[in-house]
Amino acid sequence: MLPHHHLYGLAWGAAGLAWVLCGTLLVARDTGRRSAARLFALLAAAATAAVLGARLHFVLLSPDLLELGVVRALLLPLDEGAGLRIGGGLLAAGALVLGLGPRAVGGRIGRGTLCDVLVPLGGAAVAIGRLGCFADGCCFGLPCDRAWCIRFPAWSPAYWSHLAQGLLEPSSAASLAVHPVQLYLGAAALAACAAGTWVATRRPRPGTAALVFVATQSLLRVLVEPLREASFGSGVPHQVSLDLACATAALAVLAWRSQRRATVLSLDS
Questions:
Q1: pLDDT tens digits along 24-36
Q2: Residues in contact with 141: Cβ distance below 8 Å, sequence separation at least 6, in sequence order
Q3: Which residues contact 44 (CB under 8 A, 6 or more apart)?
Q4: Could you give the CA distance from residue 141 to residue 233 in angstroms, rounded to a whole number?
Q5: Strand positions, DSSP E, 104-222
Q6: Band of pLDDT at residue 236, cut at 50, 70 and 90
Q7: Less packed terminus of the chain by CB within 10 Å, N or C?
Q8: Which of 22, 53, 51 is closest to 39 using CA atoms?
């Protein structure tokens, strides 16, 4: 049985801070120190947008919360039933970086190059945050009997869910063994980060590494999300649809770029 630690906020706060600091250092290495302050401000704003986007995503997938109205639901504390969905957070942060990134670096590098640095780095940040999910017991998976499956202690989200479904006796000391979906998602984010970083070392066309990260991350999440306990919180089917849409879009752009490059090369020859 895993001990129950309330490290959710700390882990995701550390993840956001690490992304802001590391992103600022890596980009400023190519754009110069003069842009560091503006870049830091942009990434801090993007991290804040990620939190707001993740909350909005959760609220939109939660019919019960929508009865309160979107604004009131957004303002609910995390311990009163309103959580976060990282998909919406990543989209919000990405949109802000795409829109304001070139201005923050004074036009020294383009959007594609900027995203090639910052987007795969987000995978490492997500992996850090998922450790907080694991410690707190949220985002747990379906019951399973594999050797690596985890039992969460009494009063954890998994315990309450299983108790409500009649799968446990009130005297039980722990939940049923469940898939550690938090760790699966963290590993998927790290794998996508590694894929994007490796592609970046090949010095492809700007934006390619970011697209590879999005495609890899989204496809891996499609495999993991169905293992999430859908009876505790809503939105798993919708998350798979969103991931499929992101993966399809990224792969389509990569295919279009490859086809266009092949056409140009054939014309040149």
A1: 999 988 887 778 8
A2: 149, 178, 179, 180, 181, 184, 227, 228, 229
A3: 20
A4: 12
A5: 150-153, 174-178
A6: low
A7: C
A8: 22
